[in-house]
């Protein structure tokens, strides 16, 4: 009995004085809500970290040397120079522009050409791909902005550009081309060899004093007969000023009117999100 009492006393003494190991907070997993925040460049960021705060939106680019470079900026209504593979942004307007590539279809000096050709630049404007040419397409509209090409230096791969907000809303007109090459733009100025049918359409409409701010083409597979008056299975849409509606309707084009595309979105491989846009309510191109 004596030894049992001593054992109980020892257990009480050492049991009360021994300290438990402190809790390690890193052993706990924090589960943040799965909501996301859309950034101005179209990408999405989620909540992260111990406080479940939204991650910072991307506002810089990283060079090949893994050094971060802040995006250069431009101002509306002021000309700026952009080089190939360069990206400029106007954060106040949520618009970003990148010069993807420069093109030249100029006729060589030792060759007799039907068309002298032009210099062009392919741009990405808020993930939408557009083309500007110094002869056929000096102006293009993207959303509520007008982009004007001032000049191109093909040797140094640079372009002078002005971006401004459009003061007049533009409208889309649509046409379903017919077979047998009998469309107005195909029979017009047939001796000229244009680089593409799109360029020919823009040149033909320009000859009608109609400025095209954007042009889209889509295959539809709606050909139902073999007559030359039957549709050939595609549609062409152009963005123009509303003041040109009477002339375009006379030429066989139909105004699309107000478009209500569905609000669904597509997640791109880089995590950014794009929606459907006019005139065919197709998803915008993913960046990169």
Q: How does this structure look, described?
A:
The protein has 288 residues and is mainly beta. It has 3 domains: 32-60, no CATH class; 71-167, no CATH class; 169-257, Alpha-Beta Plaits. The chain is built from 4 helices and 21 strands. The strands form 6 sheets. Strands 6-8-9-10-11 form a 5-stranded mixed beta sheet, with no helix packed on it. Strands 7-14-13-12 form a 4-stranded antiparallel beta sheet, with no helix packed on it. The protein has a 4-stranded antiparallel beta sheet with strand order 16-17-15-18. β2 and β3 form a beta hairpin. The chain is globular, with a radius of gyration of 30 Å. It starts with a helix and ends in a 5-residue tail after the last strand.
Key descriptive features of the protein:
21 strands; globular; 13% helix; 288 residues; five-stranded mixed sheet; Alpha-Beta Plaits
Structure in a nutshell:
This protein is mainly beta and 288 residues long. It is built from 4 helices and 21 strands. The chain has 3 domains: 29 residues, no CATH class; 97 residues, no CATH class; 89 residues, Alpha-Beta Plaits, CATH 3.30.70.
In DSSP terms, counting alpha (H) and pi (I) runs of 4 or more, how many helices?
A: 4
Number of strands: 21
In round numbers, the mean pLDDT is: 80
- Helix- and strand-based class? mainly beta
Topology:
Elements: H1 2-17, E1 36-38, E2 44-48, E3 53-54, E4 60-62, E5 68-70, E6 72-73, E7 80-83, E8 87-90, E9 95-104, E10 119-125, E11 128-133, E12 139-142, E13 145-153, E14 158-165, E15 171-175, H2 184-187, H3 197-207, E16 214-219, E17 234-240, H4 245-250, E18 254-255, E19 265-267, E20 273-277, E21 282-283
Parallel strand pairs: 6-8
Antiparallel strand pairs: 1-2, 2-3, 4-5, 7-14, 8-9, 9-10, 10-11, 12-13, 13-14, 15-17, 15-18, 16-17, 19-20, 20-21
């Amino acid at each position: 009995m004596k030894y049992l009492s001593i054992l109980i006393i020892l257990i009480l003494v050492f049991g009360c004085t021994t300290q438990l190991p402190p809790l390690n907070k890193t052993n706990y997993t924090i589960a943040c809500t799965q909501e996301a925040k859309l950034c101005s460049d179209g990408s999405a960021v989620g909540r992260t970290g111990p406080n479940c705060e939204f991650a910072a939106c991307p506002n810089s680019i990283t060079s090949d040397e893994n050094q971060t470079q802040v995006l250069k900026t431009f101002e509306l209504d002021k000309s700026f120079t952009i080089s190939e593979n360069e990206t400029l942004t106007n954060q106040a307007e949520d618009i970003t522009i990148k010069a993807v590539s420069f093109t030249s279809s100029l006729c060589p000096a030792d060759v007799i050409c039907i068309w002298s050709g032009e210099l062009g630049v392919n741009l990405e404007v808020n993930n939408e791909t557009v083309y500007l040419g110094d002869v056929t397409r000096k102006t293009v509209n993207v959303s509520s902005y007008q982009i004007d090409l001032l000049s191109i230096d093909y040797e140094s791969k640079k372009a002078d550009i002005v971006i401004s907000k459009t003061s007049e809303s533009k409208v889309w007109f649509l046409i379903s081309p017919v077979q047998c090459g009998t469309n107005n733009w195909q029979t017009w100025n047939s001796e000229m060899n244009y680089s593409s049918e799109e360029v020919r359409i823009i040149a033909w409409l320009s000859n009608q004093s109609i400025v095209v701010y954007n042009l889209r083409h889509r295959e539809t597979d709606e050909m139902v007969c073999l007559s030359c008056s039957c549709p050939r299975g595609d549609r062409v849409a152009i963005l123009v000023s509303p003041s040109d509606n009477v002339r375009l309707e006379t030429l066989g084009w139909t105004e699309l009117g107000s478009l209500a595309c569905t609000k669904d979105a597509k997640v791109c491989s880089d995590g950014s999100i794009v929606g459907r846009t006019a005139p065919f309510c197709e998803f915008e191109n993913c960046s990169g």
